Every structure is written in structure tokens, then in C-alpha cells.
């Protein structure tokens, strides 16, 4: 199918008037002209010698940009122990749980607490499997080459997620402390379990599509979910229905042992009204001050798809500033691989000076990055500080979930210019959002397809 489309496109290009009037291939004369333009002088040889033996980004790292940053922030929340998602795409879950930790610490009068990411990961996989099976049933009349079917079959149970999916999981399943359901090798290294789950779900997808007796769909889906549950239990462990737990307080005294359900634990230890937090995006290729909804972008099948209000960059940033100045952490999404160095934790435009290295310009504006599919949110972290001078932010303190070995003991420094280019979403409480923008969340959304660049499955780190 794809080869046929490619041949048709090639034929169309060859037959078009524009290509008929000019040479479309690289002729010998054109090749000679190109070769002559590449001047091999001492500067060329020096760069060539370096690039032939070293990673280009290391050579291009700008000394001027990477030096001279101070480590201070005019507003900084209390640091907490850095988490480590390891080789899994759970940044959205780690960062979201990290925003709840300060609330629990205050309520428990504890030094620190970490919630079990493995517990929520288990149910996230189970719910995604159910979502996949329901989508297969709904699309049973479509061919396997249908774009949505292709999208589903390529990644039945990827790791990615978003804020709305997180709050639906927490509302349904609650949370537990990390020591109640700790990490396993598979939860920290999810590639293989994703592969195994994918094969099993594709088997059931084909069976569901072949069934003509609609009364068998429910039993087949239940059979599939039983298999998924077993695979998850073997890899992640069994999630507790109840658990007994005690903790050491900030005064080093042990609390009494209590028994909880995960839902009860959330209500007593956190009790944040998560529905009061809203996702604000700034996507320059979409009209601002409108609500959007991404099809199939959710964690729980019978809950709403991911939806957000798109605002200008300045508006989105202002909400994040208000939260931090009020002492509140901010969950956000960004394109973390752009112009950042994880070893030092510095995120700054121009940190890689490819223009000097190659002698040519590589600039793309924020809008052009989106238009050319060069940037999309692939990682979630938490803002825990901001440095303000003259009433304007200069830099942002970022709590990551890549262990203390990355950045400065797990914390990154983002310049305000980097924010302007590569931050796409922040989540803030409704009290920081003006009434006119909050009202947009009650308007009918414009539907975006699941392959939209904002869909959570496109490689969340």
C-alpha cells in the first residue's frame, strides 16, 4: 500500500509542469558546481578532523553559553529526594507524583515520602490494554491499513501519558507508598514487557476482528484482560488491595502502624482535588484561546480524552510564574532533547553552536519547529523554583526524574529563553487561571487525531 502511494507520488512529480521545465536530477555539471563550493582549507580540515573522531554535539558545545550561570534562585521550593524512572517512559507519572509529595510531607509531618510509581504503572498498563481492545472493537469494520488501526497496532501499550490520564488513574486506584509496592526490574526497564503485552494484544485484536457473534466480544475481552493481568503481575508484582504502613516523622519518631486501602491512603495523606488542575498548552500552529481534544489520548477507556486550552506563550508562562511565586510546584511538558546537556543539567538556546562549527545558520522559530515536526513534548518534569529580576523570569529550576547522577544532584537549570522555545504545556490550579480562560474548558472542543504531535505516545522519556 505504501509502495503504491510512493510510486503514484513519484509519477505525479515527474508529470507536473514545474518539474517538466527544469532538471530534477543531479547532473554532472551540478555536481561539479556543488563540489567547488566546498572549500577545503585549514579551517575545514580542523573541523573534519574533530568530527571524524568525536561526537559533534561535544565539539559544538558553547563555552560562552555553558559558563557564568549562578546556582541561585530568588524563589525556590524545598528540595526533595530525586526519583529515577530508569529505562521507562514514565516521566509523566513520576513528575505528577512528585508534585503530590510536598502535600503528603506536610500532612504527615514527615521528612520525605515517595509514592509507588510501580503501583500506578500496573493499572496504567491494564487500563491501556482495555482501551486498545475497546478501540479495536469500535473500529472492527475498518481495514488494518486504516490510519487509526495502524496507529493502534504500532503501539498497543506504550509508556507515555499525560496529566489528565494521571488524575483519572489516581481517582480510580488511589496511591500507595513506594515501600509497599517497590520497583521491579521490569517496571524500571519496560521495553520487554511492552513487547510481550503488544504481541498478546495483537493476537486478541485479530480474534476480535474475526468474530461475527457480537455477544462474544465481552468474553473475549475479559479473556484478554486476564492474560494482561497475569503478565503484569509476573513483571510488576500484585498490587495491594489493603496494606499496613508506618513511617518515620521529621522528628525521627515512628508513627503508629495503620491499615489503608490505596484510595483511603490518597484521601487521608494527599486529598488534593485533582480535577481543579488544568492543562494549558501553547501550540503556535493552532489558534489560541480554544479548547482541543485528542482522540484515544487517555488512560481510562470510559473517561474523557485528553483535552486542553491553547493559549499564547506569554499567557501560559504567566500562570507558571504565579504558581511558583505562590510556593506551588508546576508540572510541565517540554522537548527535553533540544539544546540541553543532561550531565550538567543546563537547558539554554545556543548551547550547541552548530552555526560556528559548520559555518551556516540552523535557526528555526518556535512556530517553524512545530510546522516541520521538529519539536513536541517528549518529557515531563516539575518546576520547583524561579529566578526573577526586574519583574521578569531569568531562569527556572527543574526537578527531573533521571536520578541524582544527572544535572546538579537531579536538578536542572532552564533559561527563560529555553522556556520560550521548547516548553509546550503547564498544569496549574484553577485559582491561577482567569475566568475567561477557565470558561473555555466548558466549550465544545475541536477534535485532533491520535497521531497529532501532542499525543502522549510519541516517545515520552
Could you please describe the fold and organization of this structure?
The structure is a single chain. By secondary structure, this protein is of the alpha+beta class. It has two domains: 188 residues, Cysteine proteinases (Cathepsin B, Chain A, Alpha-Beta Complex), CATH 3.90.70.10; 175 residues, Cysteine proteinases (Cathepsin B, Chain A, Alpha-Beta Complex), CATH 3.90.70. It has 19 helices and 14 strands. The strands form two sheets. Strands 1, 4, 5, 6, 7, 8, 9, 10, 11, 12, 13 and 14 form a twelve-stranded mixed sheet that branches. A hairpin with a 2-residue loop joins strand 10 and strand 11. The longest helix has 22 residues. The radius of gyration is 25 Å and the shape is globular. It starts with a helix and ends in a 13-residue tail after the last strand. The C terminus is likely disordered.
User: Total domains, how many?
Assistant: 2
The general outline is: globular
Average pLDDT works out at 93
The radius of gyration over CA amounts to: 25 Å
Beta-strand percentage?
5-15%
In whole angstroms, how far apart are the ends?
A: 32 Å
Q: Helix share of residues?
A: 40-55%
Strand-pairing-aware structural class:
alpha+beta
Named CATH architecture of the largest domain: Alpha-Beta Complex
Note the topology.
Elements: H1 2-15, H2 17-20, H3 28-37, H4 42-51, H5 56-60, H6 63-66, E1 75-76, H7 91-108, H8 117-138, H9 147-154, H10 163-173, H11 185-188, H12 191-210, H13 217-236, E2 243-245, E3 258-260, H14 262-269, E4 277-281, E5 290-294, E6 306-310, H15 313-325, E7 330-334, E8 340-341, E9 346-347, H16 354-358, H17 366-371, E10 379-389, E11 392-399, E12 411-415, H18 416-422, E13 423-429, H19 435-438, E14 446-448
Parallel strand pairs: 4-6, 5-14, 9-12
Antiparallel strand pairs: 1-10, 2-3, 4-13, 5-6, 7-10, 7-13, 8-9, 10-11, 11-12
Amino acid at each position: 500500500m505504501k509502495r503504491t502511494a510512493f510510486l503514484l507520488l513519484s509519477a505525479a512529480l515527474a508529470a507536473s509542469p514545474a518539474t517538466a521545465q527544469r532538471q530534477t536530477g543531479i547532473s554532472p555539471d551540478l555536481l561539479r558546481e556543488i563540489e567547488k563550493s566546498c572549500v577545503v582549507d585549514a579551517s575545514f580540515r580542523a573541523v573534519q578532523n574533530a568530527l571524524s573522531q568525536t561526537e559533534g554535539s561535544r565539539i559544538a558545545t558553547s563555552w560562552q553559553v555553558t559558563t557564568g550561570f549562578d546556582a541561585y534562585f530568588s524563589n525556590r521550593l524545598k528540595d526533595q529526594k530525586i526519583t529515577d524512572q530508569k529505562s521507562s517512559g514514565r516521566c509523566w507519572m513520576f513528575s505528577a507524583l512528585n508534585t503530590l509529595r510536598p502535600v503528603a510531607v506536610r500532612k504527615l509531618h514527615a521528612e520525605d515520602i515517595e509514592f509507588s510509581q510501580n503501583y500506578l504503572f500496573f493499572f496504567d498498563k491494564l487500563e491501556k490494554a482495555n482501551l486498545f481492545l475497546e478501540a479495536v472493537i469500535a473500529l472492527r469494520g475498518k481495514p488494518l491499513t486504516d490510519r487509526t488501526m495502524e496507529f493502534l497496532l504500532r503501539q498497543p501499550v506504550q509508556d507515555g501519558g499525560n496529566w489528565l490520564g494521571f488524575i483519572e488513574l489516581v481517582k480510580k486506584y488511589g496511591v500507595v507508598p513506594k515501600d509497599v509496592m517497590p520497583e521491579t526490574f521490569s517496571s524500571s526497564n519496560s521495553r520487554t514487557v511492552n513487547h510481550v503485552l503488544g504481541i498478546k494484544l495483537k493476537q486478541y485484536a485479530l480474534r476480535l476482528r474475526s468474530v461475527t457473534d457480537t455477544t462474544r466480544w465481552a468474553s473475549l475481552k475479559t479473556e484478554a484482560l486476564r492474560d494482561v493481568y497475569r503478565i503484569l503481575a509476573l513483571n510488576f508484582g500484585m498490587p495491594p488491595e489493603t496494606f499496613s504502613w508506618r513511617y518515620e516523622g521529621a522528628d525521627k519518631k515512628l508513627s503508629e502502624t495503620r491499615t489503608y486501602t490505596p484510595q483511603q491512603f490518597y484521601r487521608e495523606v494527599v486529598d488534593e482535588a485533582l480535577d481543579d488542575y488544568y492543562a494549558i498548552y501553547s501550540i503556535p500552529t493552532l489558534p489560541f484561546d480554544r479548547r482541543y481534544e485528542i482522540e484515544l489520548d487517555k488512560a481510562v477507556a470510559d473517561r474523557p480524552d485528553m483535552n486542553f486550552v491553547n493559549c499564547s506563550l506569554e499567557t501560559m508562562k504567566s500562570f507558571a510564574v504565579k504558581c511558583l511565586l505562590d510556593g506551588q510546584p508546576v508540572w510541565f511538558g517540554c522537548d527535553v532533547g533540544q539544546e540541553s546537556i543532561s550531565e550538567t543539567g543546563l537547558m539554554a538556546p545556543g548551547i550547541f553552536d552548530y552555526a560556528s562549527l559548520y559555518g551556516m545558520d540552523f535557526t528555526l522559530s518556535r512556530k517553524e519547529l512545530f510546522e516541520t515536526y521538529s519539536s513536541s513534548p517528549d518529557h515531563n518534569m516539575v518546576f520547583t523554583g524561579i529566578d526573577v529580576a526586574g519583574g521578569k523570569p531569568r531562569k527556572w529550576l527543574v526537578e527531573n526524574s533521571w536520578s541524582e547522577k544527572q544535572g546538579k544532584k537531579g536538578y536542572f537549570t532552564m533559561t527563560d529563553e529555553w522556556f520560550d522555545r521548547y516548553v509546550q504545556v503547564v498544569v496549574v490550579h484553577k485559582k491561577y487561571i482567569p475566568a475567561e480562560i477557565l470558561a473555555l474548558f466548558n466549550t465544545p472542543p475541536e477534535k485532533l487525531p491520535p497521531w497529532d504531535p501532542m499525543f502522549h505516545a510519541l516517545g515520552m522519556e
